[in-house]
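Dear Dr. H.,

I hope your travels went smoothly. While you were away I took the liberty of generating a structure for the chain from your last submission, since the lab meeting agenda had it listed for discussion. I wanted you to have the full record in hand beforehand rather than looking at slides cold. The sequence, exactly as received, is reproduced here:
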Amino acid sequence: MAVVRDLRVLLRFQAFRRLLAIRLLSQGADGVYQVALATYVVFSPEKQTSATAIASAMAVLLLPYSLVGPFAGVLLDRWQRRQVFLYGNLLRAALASLTALLMLSSAPDWLFYASALCVTAVNRFVLAGLSAALPRVVDTERLVIANSLSPTAGTLAATMGGVLAFAVRLLVADSDAAVVLLGAVLYLCSALSSLTLTRELLGPDPELVQSRLGTALASTAQGLREGVRHLWERPAAARSLTAMTLMRFCYGALLVMVLMLCRYAWSSTETDGLALLGLAAVVSAAGFFVAAVVTPAAVDRLGPAGWIAGCAGTAAVLEPALSLSFAPIPILIAAFVLGLTTQGAKIATDTVMQSSVDDGFRGRIFSLYDVLFNVAFVAAAAVAALMLPPDGRSVPLAISVALIYAAVAALMTRFSAQ
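The corresponding predicted structure, in token form, is as follows:
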């Protein structure tokens, strides 16, 4: 298979192998931790979850990144990225352990959310740093392949972490706290694996590194203005980022719908609903994998904008055709299709961003990328909360999402022809 051959080529780069190990362990831990949070918030027997409650939880956990994200970008362009991976994952291991203690002690919800917020806030630094560091460990010729395999491998690792969390929760220990502690162990392993890389290898360039935190923070506003201006001067990157943000909105709205269907429409018990949600996650992960296989060839043939248009157009046609029945099998097929199209578009977008943006701006741009992702996800959850009935079946939501996909496809088709 071409993907196996490409992976063998990339794995010849020692630094790429080590950066990939950091990503796999870190995002595997993310999957474990996020599933533990989801089961605690959505599937706990004592909680009567609604779409509004899910949207509120997402807002609490994600909206503050609109403030954290820009600071992350400015600091990533000044701090050594290897050190961000080391100390960031050590901090997350400690904070995840605190989350487990709060679950066991029946602490107030606000304290639990504050702990979870801190864990996922650090995640903004780590994920943006991984994307910004990738061009430092592979050559330009192989950047598209690296963007296909590395982030997709991370997404698959997160999914497998989620599957592991489901398995532990259902088969080993009926305790969300135990699952969170498993995530803490994986965060610790990711931190230790970063020590296999030298401090300077992942950048940024030494002349950009500032050791004083106050100096870096004082330049935040100017750095953000320069980053936005830098992006605005690169229309291909700005258009791709806009399209990906809209597709992320669609994915978020449909995720809330699937959560509600699993919780109320398709199952009579919390355990059955949890198992169905785990199956949906596995099927979506299969779509991510297929995207990694087909995207390099598709981008070579269609160009990044053309491939994004194709992904959005496919979703626009198949999403309503499969989801309007609100039956498990068609929805699972839709999960595969949306996993493929969303990840395929993301790979193309990542490549455009990395190839168009100068190294000194990548941290800021990828942090803004993360902020837009989170705002789009929270906005999608809020819209879904307004449109979804208690059992999760909403024809207007499914049609609205299809129309957004169609608009993205039309716009990117126009730009790909230019």
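Two observations you may find useful: Residues 2-416 form a domain with the Growth Hormone; Chain: A; fold (CATH 1.20.1250.20). The chain has a mean pLDDT of 84.

With kind regards,
E. W.
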